[in-house]
Amino acid sequence: MAQQAAAAEPFSVLVFSKTAGFRHDSIPAGIAAIEQLGADNGFTVDATEDAGAFTDANLDKYAAVVWLSTTGDVLNADQQAAFERYIRAGGGYAGIHAASDTEYQWAWYGDLVGAYFSAHPANQTATIKVEDPAHPSTAHLPAKWSRFDEWYNFQTNPRADVHVLASLDERTYTPGSGAMGADHPTAWCHDYDGGRSWYTGSGHTIESYSEANFLAHLLGGIQTAAGAVDADCAASQTSSFEKVTLDSNTQNPMELDIAPDGRVFYIERDGRVQIVKPDTGTTVTAVDLDVFTGNEDGLIGIRLDPDFATNGWVYLYYAPNDGIARNRVARFTVSGDSIALNTEKVVIEVTTQRNTCCHAGGSMVFDSAGNLYLATGDNTNPFESNSFTPIDERAGRQDYDAQRTSGNTNDLRGKVIRIHPEDDGTYTIPTGNLFPQGTAQTRPEIFAMGFRNPFRIGIDKQTDTLYVADYGPDAGAANPDRGPEGTVEWNVVTPGNYGWPYCHGANYAYNDYTFPSGPSGAKFNCAAPVNNSPNNTGLTNLPPAISATVDYDYSGNPLFPEIGAAARRWAARCTGTTRRSPRTASGRRTSTARRCSASGTRTRCTRSSSTTTASPLWTSTSC
User: What is the pTM of this model?
Assistant: First the structure.
């Protein structure tokens, strides 16, 4: 097998394959494969089934000990004590397959491996879901890895104590007795008792040891267990995070961003831009805008310019309190810890109505090309449509008709807007938005349409993938004459129509309904939605509705059992590109989650709500 790009320093490992129970016929193939990995990647391999090798002097020669499908009680008390001393001195452990079917009476070993074997079904093909695409043992794998093996169920779920690298999708095979359900870890690692531990449940079959992906999986596991290649095995463990309050005197914080110098800029819906200063821990007000705070408006979005360190620009999305119904993105210049009102450059305005509630959106992100994305809500009253789609076409009821906003190709509400801010305060239209410039009855700023309340958006800075969390309506149950139950969407967004107010979730269609009391008409056609509302100023024939990447409702969704049905009330208020961000259940806090690791990685997630209850601004760090 070819060497990994970053070759590890030379080291030695001991492969231990003693069995006192079932003996796997794949052990010889496993030893040969590991020996070849060593020859190809610059480390020495010794193999033994002699438990007498577990002495202080002998173990000291090895950076890691690989337990290859061991079974039963294989070490005596003195040998166990020597191995414990070895790990505590910084040694490494790599467990393969039946290593978890070993030493059931040695509690320390059970904690080291992470979980004990329980049962397994017949060998079959299953899909492994890679949870950590950065760890050296899983970085090379596809996100969904389908392979044939013997799949272990475990007596306990190790997730609380280890960093899970990959899990099994039990919907793709028959898990048999002891099935673990939606959360079924199959490979993990953790720092334990001074040493390093890595485990994979795969490796039962002889064929595994000639499979390129599995061999690369083993190589990454052995190298990281040996400490020859860096790995973060605490990335998802709760103990890696410490909540640190930044500001305990907030009112209605909406969004935040972090400057390169460590200052945290956050906004209060009442118009204040606040700066938390890391050197003193104090909070200062940079500016207090005069904003309209009715409904869900106010100061609701903030994003620092990608070149903030040199130009000091900050973009704010707010509702000016001057009697004109609109929200605007404006650029201001930060000088020290202050923002002067006379530095404002109005970039773009979104016409709104202020007669009634709700859904303003306001979240903003930049991509690597300097394009600014803004999410806007449907600006439509949701309370007089029985928690189904608000499409009231009666005269004077336009504020209750989301067809005039989200379903309107000529309106900026209920959209994700993408523009490129220019240095002079104007903007240009990037190529690739939903409607080419010059298309009649459309706005070229629209990147994607058909959203209800896209409360949070995020972007993967490595790939520029845009993520949008769209909060859904509140119908407690589906109604065949009206439409689906309340559904939340999480979307990987590309240019297109995401369905609202005609379709939602996995393209669940609403009925065309005559307000106020019916009759109920046919279901809307998600493949070819038609907007014939008298309040529509855009195209009649709309782009096909795109099904949600992930959707969830009150009764849960068997396609995404990991989320849990109760999560839908608040989970769409926080979305991002990272795999762990601490949350609170109240939805009243704005937070950033930071963690320190050997690689200096950081995760972040912002949350806010339109409540007015005071709550702290906090950050979470590990050191």
Answer: 0.81
